[in-house]
Structures are given as C-alpha cells and as structure tokens.
Predict the 3D structure of the following.
Amino acid sequence: LEHFKDNPDVMKTTYASAPSVAYDDFVGQIVSTADIRINEKVNYNDLLYALLLPSACEAANIIAYNLGNGNINEFVKMMNDKAAELGCNDTTFANAHGLHDENQLTTAYDMSKIVQYAMTLPKFMEIASTTQYTLEPTEVHKTGTFLKHTNAMLQKDSQYYYKYAMGIKTGTLDEAGRCLVSTAEKDGVKYLVVSMNAPMTDNDGNSVFYNCVDHTTLYEWAFNKLVNTKILDKMVEVGKIEVQYGKDASHVLVKPVDEFSTYWPEELTPDVVKQTIISEEIAIAPVEEGQKLGAYL
C-alpha cells in the first residue's frame, strides 16, 4: 500500500508471482493459504485481499519477494525499519508471513501503532473490512478464488457477529493463541482493540473464539459506559500569581490555554482527576495576555 499509495488503482493491473523459494517456509506445515501457486500471476490488489482476509502466507511472501527485489529478507528488513520509524521499540520481525519464529516478537502496544499507521494508507480499511471477496481469474484458477475474512465478528452467519465491528486481522498459532486486531464504530465514536494469546478451546476442548468475545465485551463496555467528559475548562481560573512592578494590578489570574476532554466512565466526575499545577511564584511586569506562567503535570 505504501508502494502504490500515489495511485492505488494501479495495483489492479500490476501483477506479481514468485518462484518456489517463496514457499520453502511452508514445507511440512499446515498454513493459511489462498491457494496461490508457484509462479501464478496475481495482481497486487488481489494479493492484499488474500493477505488480509484469510491470512494467506504465500501472498505475504509473494509481496515480500517482489518488493524486496527478489530477496524476502530485504523486505523483512524494510518491515523492521518501518517498525522502528513508528516507535515500536519491542518489535522484531523475522519473516513476512507471521508464522512462529523464536526471533519474531511484538507487543499489543506496538501492534496498535502499526495498525493505526496502516489505517492512514489508502484502501487499507476498505480491504481489511471486506467480509468476502473473489480473486480475479488466473491461468491456474479459471473462475477465481473465493475468500472469506477470518474475523468471525464480521460474518453475519457467525455467533460472534458484532454489527459495529470493522476489520482488521486475526492471527492464530499454537505458540501465540488467538490474536486479533479490530475496530468498532458507533455514533461517531471509534475504538481499536488489540489482543493476543486468547485460548483456542474451552475446558471441554471445544473450539471457542474468545478473542472475538473479549473484543465485543470491551466495545460494549466502552460504548455504553464511557462519555465525552471535559476534564479541563479553559474558561475556569485555576489560580493567581503576584505581579511585581505592575502599574495597574498586583496579581494576574491564570487559566489553561486549552481545554481537554476525554472519554470517561459516566459514573466518575472530573474532580477525581488529580491535577498538579506548577507555576511561577512571582511574575515581573509587564505581563501579556497569553503569556505562559505555569504548566500541568
């Protein structure tokens, strides 16, 4: 998406494929796939749908192989450079497809930074929120390939369906449990949830999507319990400071330069917030309107 951000529509007419080296990591493993074969030509738009809907590992490596100029490790370096640029201090990528590697590490906090950046790129949320999609026909797949998003919160026929949810990505490994990044929007308010390592089964061994349950629970709590609350009012005077050598006044009143509001549990009043103000003990005339004489900690 970064590569084509100046003209994302070009992705639909730009094709990529990869030799067997892009498939070597998957030998002997059961991996998520869109059944894209060795050297099969697929446009970048479809590769992204394959990547973001069913978590197609081969789509990840085809993209990495081509944008890395025939070197997947070069693309992984680009991933790590981008993570560092975004301030992800606890993230190291070892591959492009996300399968387990002892050297591959991240945190929910870092993943939220990466996702929030990705959401600024054209077409990302459009693709990541699509529930079903059929890849363009190719020489190998004459009628295309049907894909379905793996986030059960998006599927209306699922017991985990949540009507306010949008996207974004699942990840499921024995080592990592059920992982999920999703967003939800209601009445103009949007939240992002990142969770990792949810159990894959209940105590009886039945498959359960606890990640979807947790995300829905968090969204419902936030939508129903949090209200937009003004914590700091710029019209309210918070103190006064003595002025020396003033012609017409012995002190000045101080107020916040800006207001501050946040979404806050409705049962809590703003006065529970501890506000610490540091300010000058004395101001020397002349004192101008808007002059900074203190700060909140």
The mean pLDDT is 95. DSSP finds six helices and 14 strands in the chain. The first helix runs from residue 44 to 52. The helical segments are 44-52, 57-67, 72-85, 108-118, 124-128, 210-225.
